[in-house]
Amino acid sequence: xxxxxxxDKFNNPLHISALVLSVxxxxxxxxxxxxxxxxxxxxxxxxxxxxxxxxxxxxxxxILFFIQETSTKVIFIFLHYLVLFLIGYPLGNYIGIELxxxxxxxxxxxxxxxxxxxxxxxxxxxxxFMFSQGEVSAWQxxxxxxxxxxxxxxxxxxxxxxxxxxxxxxxxxxxTEKTKRIVHLDSAITQxxxxxxxxxxxxxxxxxxxxxxxxxxxxxxxHDTVGYVLTNIIMMMEDAALLTDEKKIKRNEILFTxxxxxxxxxxxxxxxxxxxxxxxxxxxxxxNMIEELVSVFQQATGIDIKVEYGxxxxxxNDRIDAIIFRTIQEGMTNAFRHGMATIIRIxxxxxxxxxxxxxxxxxxxxxxxxxxxxxxxxxxxxxxxxGNIDIRNVDDGFKIDVEIPLE
Length: 407
Hints:
Layout: H1 13-36, H2 43-66, H3 70-88, H4 96-112, H5 117-131, E1 136-138, E2 141-143, H6 148-242, H7 248-278, H8 286-301, E3 304-308, H9 318-337, E4 343-351, E5 354-361, H10 373-383, E6 388-394, E7 397-405
Parallel strand pairs: 3-4
Antiparallel strand pairs: 1-2, 4-5, 5-7, 6-7
């Protein structure tokens, strides 16, 4: 039952506090009983049994500290109460020791069990504890019951301890969640920073490589046009220079041909320059654009992202292209930043000239969906083309459904 031991137990301040308080409570109980047992009529009969029960109670507290399974914890908590009852039963109207140990049990129940299980177990033990405070008989002697005054004070004190312990449990849970969120965001910032540095290096390398390729291309253009023409002109000029005055007509023909070659070379050079000036930059669009966006985001954040395009073959126009791009970008960003999602699924489907886009993540969702700048902009873009958007929490995360008319 105690083989499922986790090192996280020693990193949980609530669990450590419960164990420390339990040990302190038992030590105080031992001291009080040692000082008081002679005043109790059956004190000398109960001495060694009391020490044995205290030892068993401490052992149960240690076992509770290491147990992982909730059902086993509940069993040992009720077993702990049974030992507490056996300790307090012969003490009769002296409820001090029993109350100290019961307070320790309340704290253990609150800190070791999660809500609402801890509240249910505490309620059962509270009523068992209160109704067990009656007249008792031990070692053939009748022992007075706890007075109504002491019983009322005990009930109020117990309820106060229960409320405080439950509040501490809730506060600790909130702090743990916030700590996880901070760690998650710190990790995300580190990943995004590394990705940004990588992108900057990539852009710089790409820029240098582009310049090198452009130089090579321009050199080929010059070689294929100007170089060829100038070579021909040089050869013809050399031929013309070797001709004598008697071959004036032949020389003029060569010079005329050289002139035509120069004119042709000039026209080809201008055409090449116009081509370089008017050349358009290749732009990624449609499905390729979505693939590139998802790939970059996945590498930067480490989120598992899958896209199903269904019966989608392409997008209608640049406007719808841009709207879908921004919608998916905003959906993935919100899933990462606010939902702390680890899985995102994006689906496309076309029905009756309507494009349906679904963005589903496994994040924590949102208690209250508020339209920030990003979500408001997403709604405005979709509404501007007669589309519709539905943003909501689902059982396994968060979901955005978009409908865009393709007409």
